[in-house]
Fold this protein.
Amino acid sequence: MSPLNVLNGGSLGNSPRDPPSPPLAPGQPHPAAPALATAHGVQQAANCGFARGCGDVQPPALLDDVAALVRDHPCYSEEAHHHFARIHVAVAPACNIQCHYCHRKYDCANESRPGVVSERLTPDDAIRKVLAVAAEVPELSVVGIAGPGDALANTEATFATLEGIRREAPDLTLCLSTNGLALPANVDRLVAAGVRHVTVTVNMTDPEVGERIYPWIVLDGKKIRGREASRILSERQLAGIAGLRERGVLVKVNSVVIPGVNDAHLPDVTRAVRAAGAFIVNLVPLISAPEHGTHYGLTGQRGPTAEELERVQAGCEIDARLMRHCRQCRADAVGRLGEDRFEAFTLAKLPPGPARDARELRAERREVVSRARGIAARARDAAILRVAGAPAELSARVAVATKGGGLVDQHFGHAREFLVYDVAREGARLVGRRTTDAYCTGNDGDDDALDVAIRALADCDAVLVAKVGHCPRGQLAAAGIEPSTDQAFQPIEAAAIAWFEGFAARVARGEVAPRKAGRAEPSTAPRAEVA
Ligand code: CLF
Ligand code: SF4
């Protein structure tokens, strides 16, 4: 395995030759269970090449069966999110707890950005919609239930939907998210339904912290408040994670980062969920605004800045594999992460008749992706060889504009988000993403939007794009951000390393100085805006 492959999460999605994993019988432990149950405990190397630290923390290599489970899942594999799509079916309106960051009118903030779900679905509607989307979107690989309430507070609809999808489109991966309160009671049923990916939102293990996040829970028809509510919730979350893990289900934990409430506590939370068997942790920034009508929004509780989020990630990464490409999706999201197509697939727009069976198309798409992955991996490995002689301490931060297929192929002016990578001689590592308004809205650029984009990329040394206009090129350069089109249409990681190769040469010649500690802080939190 190449060093870069390890940095990006072992063989997460980068091993097209992995054999498919056989389905697990209910109750059958996953063959990888013991390996995943241990924390890797890797220390930061003394010669860490990444300026932000923790870049050399190497997650353990994935066993083949686990690699097969994450390979085509856009949330469990950062690499897969360039190629594969998910659909969320909003069949779960009710919830059994109250979070201070949630208002029922809005999507579940565990798995979504604030925005009203355009329509709630019955299980029959959901199955019809999934089949219609699957016929049009061959990159679809995952069907998820992520609200708008809690999937396991709506078990009848949730399981009817899961069973229907499994029956009609067995090649699609089933996924769901939950707050975990009802998880222990549903582990067996989830396994029997064929679910191998579950996200549990865990924001605390300390009830003193919890009572500042959860005013109440409902258990067996009884409302429980205060610390006792959080104690019960935490106990059930950890027991549920352990139960899933024992049955071979990959558990992702989402933790909402709430500055001043749980940010300092999250390393403890990460350790606890890892010990329980969580596979990956996703630290999501709190989205909070008065117009959402949430307790936090109305009381002025803010979300973290991009820099604060990175600090929390650095504190947690020692103990867990981290997800850094979450888009905080709507509960009715459709498409690849970051390209939301839910409006094109409302019930009213679905074709009246049964959708065609598109399994063969999906299989063909997987073949195409497999070839693209091979090309990208070879380009990346060749680029790493070329920068092997760069100083160990040299690193740079590079933003990339992409349309989502794993290439540098977006025009600067059309980009609504940038993926941000730290690059060193070991390779490129995703550190997060920055959202911004598209600069180019017509023939004339919008100067305000350009300012926003430049501020959002303030900590970057370069931005790699397919094209950039003369005016933004000059303003980016004036802000110390080098716009580059030299890597246009190259695979992202190879492109970032290729840019770094030239950067390292210029540093060696004394033409540019590497940025020291204390980069400018980007002005935007790395979160999505309401579409
Ligand atoms: Fe959906 Fe969640 Fe499954 Fe993914 S989303 S239920 S694990 S299929 Fe993914 Fe969206 Fe982030 Fe969730 S980007 S909000 S982590
Ligand atoms: Fe809202 Fe989800 Fe919390 Fe329930 S678990 S209150 S739906 S954020």
